[in-house]
């Protein structure tokens, strides 16, 4: 009998991450703080007991206001940052566009970076050669192909990084805020590509601040607040929550009226 339960592509189990915040960097500053009996450093919890199972073929958005822990969680899923507690398992080839330009070497040309970054993302030379023209065409970097990428505009940089990553045909594609960079035409091209990628049954986890964009691409939203999951369910509720939390913040900054209505009831998958 076929298995009705979809396979997990990503399993995040009780992940915790703490950072150390240093309040004094110079000896003078340290002395002043010590005399005043102020802390020199403190531990800061960026993620607290985060769990989620992402099935093969799901397109999931990580949402939350600034500093809620989205990028940290994506970095831990990608493996570039270890968790302090808990574990993460990912099935298959992973490609991550985690930071703008990540994986591209500024002193190498676009052409050289296609091979270097392709290799980092798991393509051998033969596969890169086969996909080279498609990568360059999608990136639309034209005559800049043989220029060092430090001369690229941020949009060109991003186009190349996105194009290489998407052409590795990853099983799990992790994307952080990259669609905020670049021109609207390329952004539309990326959205189309991501939709095609999603429709081909691959898995995607995306961080973005644009609620409209996330509604277009994702079906599920995991909403983080102060490093904890407060909503894990349909994307529309998650996107509405993002808009509401932003309004709440804005009002707090402007000294407007107090608390807004309580968050929606948590789905079965959410934790405190
Ligand atoms: N390397 C680090 N050292 C110390 N603190 C860090 C580090 N990386 C992240 N943080 C802190 O951890 C918290 C979560 O950061 P993170 O970048 O994951 O949030 P985010 O939700 O992605 O925010 P944004 O939407 O602004 O990108 C923030 O308060 C951030 O300042």
From TrEMBL:
Keyword Ribonucleoprotein among record annotations: no
GO molecular function: ATP binding
PROSITE patterns in the cross-refs: ABC_TRANSPORTER_1, ABC_TRANSPORTER_2
Cross-referenced InterPro entries: AAA+_ATPase, ABC_transporter-like_ATP-bd, ABC_transporter-like_CS, ABC_transpr_TagH-like, Bact_Polysacc_Export_ATP-bd, P-loop_NTPase
The organism's place on the tree of life at top rank: Bacteria
Pfam families for the chain: ABC_tran (PF00005)
Keywords, in A-Z order: ATP-binding, Nucleotide-binding, Transport
Residue span of region Disordered: 249-272
Residue ranges constituting the ABC transporter domain according to the UniProt record: 32-251
Protein family (similarity comment): Belongs to the ABC transporter superfamily.
Stated name of the protein: ABC transporter ATP-binding protein
UniProt organism field: Actinomadura yumaensis
């Amino acid at each position: 009998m076929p298995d009705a339960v979809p396979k997990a592509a990503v399993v995040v189990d009780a992940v915790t991450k703490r950072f150390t915040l240093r309040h004094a960097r110079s000896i003078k500053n340290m002395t002043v703080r010590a005399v005043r009996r102020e802390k020199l450093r403190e531990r800061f919890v960026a993620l607290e007991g985060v769990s989620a199972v992402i099935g093969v073929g799901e397109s999931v958005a990580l949402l939350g206001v600034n500093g809620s822990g989205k990028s940290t969680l994506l970095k831990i899923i990608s493996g570039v940052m270890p968790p302090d507690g808990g574990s993460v398992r990912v099935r298959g080839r992973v490609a991550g566009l985690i930071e703008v330009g990540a994986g591209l070497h500024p002193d190498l040309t676009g052409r050289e970076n296609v091979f270097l970054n392709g290799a980092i993302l798991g393509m051998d030379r033969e596969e890169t050669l086969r996909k080279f023209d498609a990568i360059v065409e999608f990136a639309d970097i034209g005559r800049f192909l043989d220029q060092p990428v430090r001369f690229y505009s941020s949009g060109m940089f991003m186009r190349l990084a996105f194009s290489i990553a998407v052409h590795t045909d990853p099983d799990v594609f992790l994307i952080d805020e990259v669609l905020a960079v670049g021109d609207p035409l390329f952004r539309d091209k990326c959205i189309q590509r991501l939709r095609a990628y999603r429709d081909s049954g691959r898995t995607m986890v995306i961080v973005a601040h644009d609620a409209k964009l996330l509604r277009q691409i994702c079906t599920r939203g995991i909403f983080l607040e102060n490093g904890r999951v407060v909503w894990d369910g349909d994307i529309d509720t998650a996107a509405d929550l993002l808009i509401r939390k932003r309004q709440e913040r804005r009002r707090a900054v402007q000294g407007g009226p107090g608390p807004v209505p309580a968050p929606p009831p948590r789905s079965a998958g959410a934790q405190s």
